[in-house]
Specification:
The protein is α/β, with parallel strands linked by helices. The chain has six helices and four strands. α3 (93-104) runs parallel beside α4.
């Protein structure tokens, strides 16, 4: 049997659960010159975070701004704090823990979702995310984009597919 995320969250929390897109102020090693400049071919100028709250705001302020956008559709609902723009584990673990903890603090936030690259998930960051997962559920999104080596070069991702199997 197949269960959608929407069905799962409705069963678990008794209501609709919306993701609130947040911007942690990160960049990407494929933009800042570490691995490349300009990013991958599929990444927009905003780091694929078109729906994120305003980058200059604190995480609590971004949460409030994002909730305001969906409040009419979800007046008493629950939320997942979603870090989508750029590479959301591309900072020192203490900084990540600070931002992610702020995002998880409100009671109506029932989980944390993080979009990142497998080459930016060092063991100390995985351990930190594991500790946060004991507080509220944490999911990590790793976009593979392609399994074809020739496509990896074309999309300018900055790492080979093997990094998925070695991390």
């Amino acid at each position: 049997m197949y269960t959608t995320a929407n069905q799962h969250y409705r069963e678990k929390y008794g209501c609709k659960v919306y993701r609130l897109s947040l911007d942690g102020g990160f960049t990407c090693p494929n933009r800042d010159g570490t691995l490349g400049r300009g990013g991958c071919v599929f990444c927009a100028g905003d780091g694929s975070g078109a729906f994120a709250a305003e980058r200059g705001l604190s995480i609590p302020e971004q949460l409030e701004q994002a909730k305001t956008l969906v409040r009419e559709k979800n007046p008493d609902g629950k939320y997942i704090a979603y870090f989508q723009a750029f590479t959301n584990t591309y900072a020192p673990a203490p900084r990540l823990r600070e931002l992610f903890s702020q995002a998880m603090e409100p009671e109506e936030i029932v989980g944390l979702s993080i979009g990142t690259r497998p080459d930016c998930l060092e063991p100390e960051k995985v351990a930190m995310l594991s500790r946060l997962n004991r507080v509220k559920p944490v999911t990590v999104e790793l976009g593979l984009q392609t399994i074809h080596p020739e496509s990896v070069s074309y999309i300018r991702r900055g790492y080979e597919n093997e990094v998925y199997w070695t991390r």
